[in-house]
Design a protein that fits this description.
Layout lengths: L32 H13 L7 H14 L3 E5 L2 H11 L7 E5 L8 H5 L3 E5 L10 H7 L4 E7 L8 H11 L2 E5 L7 E2 L2 E2 L6 E5 L13 E5 L2 H11 L3 E2 L15 E2 L15 H11 L2 H19 L5 E2 L7 E2 L5 E5 L8 H11 L15 H5 L8 H7 L2 E4 L7 H21 L1
Parallel strand pairs: 2-3, 2-4, 4-5, 5-8
Antiparallel strand pairs: 1-9, 6-7, 6-13, 8-9, 10-11, 12-14, 14-15
Helix pairs in contact: 1-8, 2-8, 9-13, 10-13
The structure holds pyridoxal-5'-phosphate (PLP).
Length: 413
Amino acid sequence: MSENNSKLSDPSGRGWVEGYKVIFPKMQHPYTEDEIQTVADVMRHAEGQTQGQYLEKFQADFAAFTGVKHAFAVSNCTNALKLAAIFCRLQPGDEVILPAYTYMASAVPFGDLGAKLVWADIHPKTWTIDPEDILKKLTPKTKVILAVHLLGLPCHMREIMDIAKRYNIKVIEDCAQAMDCRVDGQHVGTFGDFGCFSFHAAKTMTTLGEGGMLVVRDDETAKLVPGIRHNGLCAFEGPRERYWVPAMSNVESFLDGQWPQNFCIGEAQCALGAQQLKGVIANNEILIEQDRRIRAALADIPELSFPEVIPGGRYVVHQYVMHFDGSAFGKNRDDLLDLMTKKYGVRCITQYYPLYRYPLFQKMGLGTHDCPVLEEWWDNSFSLPWWCGIDDESLSIMTDGLRSAVNDLRNQA
Ligand SMILES: Cc1ncc(COP(=O)(O)O)c(C=O)c1O
């Protein structure tokens, strides 16, 4: 294992590093030849490279997949979240309740609009935002609840929607890690007012490394999305012989006092997205089966635990996070990962540091927190290397390694 290997500087912990038997790959899954051909066809034949027929098709296919009326492809999920925040008409000082256990991009679009971020705790069993803690943190200034279906785990959507209806609060769902994640068959992202999806390279499906989708429930809001997504541009009504008079197109303010953005996505990305959508369910089935095998292999080790899935929920296992409780013999997660990385050759990582611990949020005055479950839980959680189609040998190396590492720690006590 080379400590000097430059790849160690990859902050995500992904990618090849010398000396390990199992690592987190940089790319979830390689493109098929058909997918490569799809992109090449757009490059050769598409009339325009953006805002065309491939965008329309991708949006329509995505809407059908998730069961919504309105889906809008955008440049990434962070910008989908930003659009959702804009449409909630968030003003400086408005409060947004969100889990502190999430990737930083869940929070930044709201902070950027001047909202106060109120950190909610995780549920001790399901590890997603805890509806009871949301209730505790509500104030008259609460405008939005952000439900993040992190790791592909469905949030307690029924309870969250009940709270939102009772107190007239908007709900935005961050589904960046939750393609095909469902509750009672209903796709996540379709319970709240807005659903935001990511097609980043590390996600279940990707549109050439970056991309996103915003789904919108309300018909009136949906009419406003194309303009605010694309610099406020809109066509003049009706045929115009002098098409250049008074200008080629109009620029309109779609929401009073709100500048439009450019969050568009190109045609080649959309063509690939429509293609990748077809493989999502099959990929998730593989991930779910991998999870089943790992749980079965480690079921007799009480120190290791897995997330519980809400009744009726479909957990699509986007990342593989587990929890280690070595308190009975005075050991912790870091002791376990020392052994996993140095002795058993498995490059485990830790994922989604509580956001209030980062200097960024602290410097922005958002370091205050009251999340006792997360505080205890996070310091003993870790992730196994994870991708779709892990071979039997790698799975065994990981589960055998964990079994041996826990045993070693018990014996050291
Ligand atoms: C939970 C979560 N939210 C938001 C994002 C942001 O997605 P994007 O990279 O498409 O902007 C990510 C990306 O990793 C994520 O994991």
